[in-house]
Amino acid sequence: MDRSRAHPRSRPAHHHPWSPPLNAAPADQIRLLEVQALDVRLSQLAHKRRTLPEHAELDALNADLTQLRDLLVAAQTEESDTAREQTKAEQDVDQVRQRAARDQKRLDSGAVTSPKDLENLQHEIASLAKRQSDLEDVVLEVMERREAAQERVAELTGRVQSLQDRIGDTTARRDAAAGEIDAEVATVTKERGVIAGTIPADLLKLYDKLCEQQGGVGAARLYQRRCDGCRQELAITELNEVRAAAPDAVVRCENCRRILVRTPESGL
Fold first, then answer.
1. Using the 8-state DSSP alphabet, how is residue 111 labeled?
2. How far is Cα 138 from Cα 68, in angstroms, rounded to an integer?
3. Which residues have CB under 8 Å from 42's CB, separation 6+?
4. Residue pLDDT, tens place only, 158-217
5. Which parts of the sequence belong to the C4-type zinc ribbon domain (predicted)?
6. How many CB atoms lie within 10 A of CB 147?
7. Distance between CA 67 and CA 96 in Å, rounded?
8. Residue 78 to residue 144: CA distance in whole angstroms
């Protein structure tokens, strides 16, 4: 048969134009599946850590906290403004009161004898009394607004504190959950290092390269004539090539290019 005209899937499964032939003991290839299983577990743990429900909960709580703090600053500003307004209104009342007291003292002293001057003085005292009453009403109105602002500040301060407590609790839960995951990651990583250390360097290098290219899966078992990596069933010509390959030949899936590890359940 002219090999140059053969179907591209008919070339030996263990020899790709993009990589030289590689040999490794069957036991080493089986151990590669153990490393793959541990890498999948590490990937799952990383995903679990990234998607802890506490992350979303903290995002929502912190967004609420930012909003509450803005409202609190606005309430504190209003309280501060009304406090200055109250001080100014009280000073205005005090000035009118002092002026009325001086006029009343002049009136009571008998020093003013002219009927016209007396009339003017009495008129001014009456006007000042009206002015003082109006200003005292202003003071009361400002005091009410200030009291409302103070109540708002107190309420928002309490809500901010409560939210900060929730954030603290949620952060502690997140850190505890992340700590458990990190502990498992450390255990799995150590186990992976031990097993990977027993695998030939060239085989491990190929596996690591394929992992980068194939979404974290560089090796897959051949199970019931199907590649566990891409879930594709091998064509009959491909199966024949795998059957004919030496036990220590590192074969590759023609479909996904992953290392294909043969086991007793391969169905060959």
1. -
2. 31
3. 185, 188, 189, 192
4. 999 999 999 999 999 999 999 999 999 999 999 999 999 999 999 999 999 999 999 999
5. 226-260
6. 12
7. 44
8. 12
H helix count then E strand count, the chain: 5, 4
Q: Which two tokens stand for residue 59?
A: 């995002």
Q: What is the pLDDT of residues 74-126, one digit of tens each?
A: 999 999 999 999 999 999 999 999 999 998 888 888 887 788 888 888 898 89
Residues 265 and 225: their CA atoms lie apart, in Å, by 9
Q: pTM score, two decimals?
A: 0.71
Cβ atoms of 201 and 240 within 8 Å: the answer is: no
Token pair, residue 192, equals 């992976």
| Residue 132 region by backbone torsions, left for phi larger than 0, else alpha for psi between -120 and 50, else beta | alpha
Q: Are strands 251-252 and 219-223 parallel, antiparallel or unpaired?
A: unpaired
Collect all residues with Cβ–Cβ distance below 8 Å to 222 and sequence separation of at least 6: 228, 234, 242, 260, 261, 262, 263, 266, 267, 268
What domains, with CATH codes, occur in the chain?
3-50+195-262 (no CATH), 53-178 (1.10.287.1700)
Nearest by Cα to 68 from 168, 155, 179, 183:
155
Chain segment 210-252, per-residue pLDDT in tens? 999 999 999 999 999 999 999 999 999 999 999 999 999 999 9
- Tokens in use for 100? 């009325």
Beginning with the edge strand found earlier in the chain, give each strand of the sheet holding 259-262 in spatial order.
226-227, 219-223, 259-262, 251-252
